[in-house]
UniProtKB/TrEMBL annotation:
Organism this protein belongs to: Xylaria flabelliformis
InterPro entries: Glutathione-S-Trfase_C-like, Glutathione-S-Trfase_C_sf, Glutathione_S-Trfase, Glutathione_S-Trfase_N, GST_C, Thioredoxin-like_sf
Annotated GO MF terms: glutathione transferase activity
Protein name: glutathione transferase
Record family assignment: Belongs to the GST superfamily.
Recorded catalytic activity of this chain's protein: RX + glutathione = an S-substituted glutathione + a halide anion + H(+)
Lineage of source species: Eukaryota, Fungi, Dikarya, Ascomycota, Pezizomycotina
Annotated EC: 2.5.1.18
Amino acid sequence: MKPIRVWLIPPGPNPWKVVLILEELGVPYEIVTIRFDDVKKKPYTDINPNGRCPAIQDPNRDITLWESGAIIQYIIEEYDTDMKLTYDKFPEKHHLNQWLQFQMSGQGPYYGAAAWFNVLHEEKLPTAIERYNAQLKRVLSVLDGWLADRQWLVGDKVTYADLAFVPWNERIDSIILCAPEEKFAGFPNVQAWHERMVSRPAWKRIMEIRAALMEESGLENATGRPARFKSHQEYEEAIARGENTDP
């Protein structure tokens, strides 16, 4: 089997959902690191016209895909033939899709907005910070309630739906600027669920890869920008001017 090519920007959480699924399934892959400066222009926009990561190219099936949820569903359908991370029976297969959609429509956007207003936006807007921090905690409350009497979102094993939540939940402390040990305060069921997943060998392996890529790229862990820029706006303005933004 030829490796699946995965385009990613190392700091971003969404690509690591895809890499985690590939790692769990033992599907060979190769990472192509793209700079934030280049994600909105050719040749990458020929791969993903939306100019976001991740995107994949699978030479085994001759297909290119973007949008992490669509990629996860593709990998599961094509490569999880042993049903390691999925179910093919009714109603579990639909419930898995339900939770993946909640991750895509709820967790990702609200956590991303919270990260923007807490960390990246130059002007601190208390109302925006309050709103999106509250929405982040609302997502956690939904998960915590569901996990009160179960270990996994669907069925009796870890699935792709569970794993899709890990990268964003892992960075809650850097999003809402709290101590790492406080990021799941008030949500003990989510904390236990998350700890079950981050203790898995696949997660540990891909975080070693991420750490190496971050160091190689000279990027800050919290912001994803080169450390020499004082704000994300300064970084984006330098990109717009066509300046060299190397660390």
